[in-house]
Amino acid sequence: MKRINLDTDEIRSFCLLAETGSFRKAAQRLGISGSTLSRQISRIEERTQARLFDRDTRNVALTDQGKMFLRLAERILNTTDSALAEFDTYLNTRRGKLTIAGLPSVTAGLLPPLIAEFMDAHPNVDVQLNDMLSEGVLREVEMGRADIGFTADVVEDSDNLSFQRLLSDKFIAVGAPGSFLQEERTYKWEEILSQPMVAMSRETSVRAVIDAACTQNSFLFRPRFEVAHLATAGALVSQGLCITALPSLTLPVLGRSPLIFRPLESPVLLRQIGLIWRSGRTLPPAAQAFLNLVRSRNLKSLIPHSTIENSLVSPTS
């Protein structure tokens, strides 16, 4: 079967000539000369190997073959216009999909207001939010299953990933009312490490930062409990079984029970939160729009208790 190669400009010229029945009128509307239009129609007939118009000095009329070709040509143009309109919508982030991978503390403590603002501006973009540990975030972005990722601590730029630091997340002490942290003051790390503590598992970014600080400062860290989920840590603390030290972004994940939050010093410990994406790859329009939003906002103002002083508060207050 011989393939017929026609471009959309030629097909539009054919349809307009069929509509007007006049080379002069069709050429005027197309902004070309009558002779140019005549050559286009001749090429179409040559390539289709069919006579599409009967024409004399005054009249142009579709043949039966031309009428059949017109139905197909209109279908082609409608499909083309619809596809191009859909692509334009995608480019302008009126539709599309955004997939974000992030640490649970970031997806719960930082991203919700940003996602709400993004969806207000782009209501037809589907947003998928995957919360996971640091290694999972890196893997999802590297494999292209997530457009962008939010993780902790610096990821060196490489052939695979680029990293942009967004903010510093300060560690604070967390306890139940009436616990060791009842006194309203700033606590030192050596003080809280002497108490029964719950620690996050060694695979988490929170534990990595604490372990590094303890090694650097020759602190002995022997937690009574070790857990994988922040909600479990919050439950143990709320029962008065232990205290803990966590970054401020983790507070919304701790649960509903009233808890005490106290500043920590000696040292002041910070976890660096950053954004990662695949190096050398153009982000989809929706991902680029979300990235621009993140970069334009004062993220520190979104951190719970980012300016914490001595306080007794509930996560739901």
SSE inventory with pairings:
Blueprint: H1 8-20, H2 23-30, H3 34-48, E1 53-55, E2 60-62, H4 64-91, E3 96-102, H5 104-109, H6 111-121, E4 125-131, H7 134-142, E5 148-152, E6 161-175, E7 187-188, H8 189-193, E8 198-200, H9 205-217, E9 225-227, H10 230-238, E10 244-247, E11 259-265, E12 270-278, H11 285-296, E13 311-313
Parallel strand pairs: 3-4, 3-5, 7-11, 8-9
Antiparallel strand pairs: 1-2, 5-12, 6-10, 6-11, 6-12, 11-13
Helix pairs in contact: 1-2, 1-3, 1-4, 2-3
Descriptive overview:
This protein has 317 residues and is α/β, with parallel strands linked by helices. It contains eleven helices and 13 strands. It has helices at 8-20, 23-30, 34-48, 64-91, 104-109, 111-121, 134-142, 189-193, 205-217, 230-238, 285-296, and strands spanning 53-55, 60-62, 96-102, 125-131, 148-152, 161-175, 187-188, 198-200, 225-227, 244-247, 259-265, 270-278, 311-313. A hairpin with a 4-residue loop joins strand 1 and strand 2. The longest helix is centred in the first third of the chain and has 28 residues, at 64-91. It starts with 7 loop residues before the first helix and ends with a strand.
Q: Which structural category do the helix and sheet elements fall into?
A: alpha/beta
Form type: rod-shaped
**Discrete helix count:** 11
Please count the beta strands (DSSP E, at least 2 residues each): 13
Q: Cα distance, first to last residue?
A: 73 Å
Residues in helices, as a percent range? 40-55%
Question: What series of H and E elements makes up the topology?
Answer: HHHEEHEHHEHEEEHEHEHEEEHE
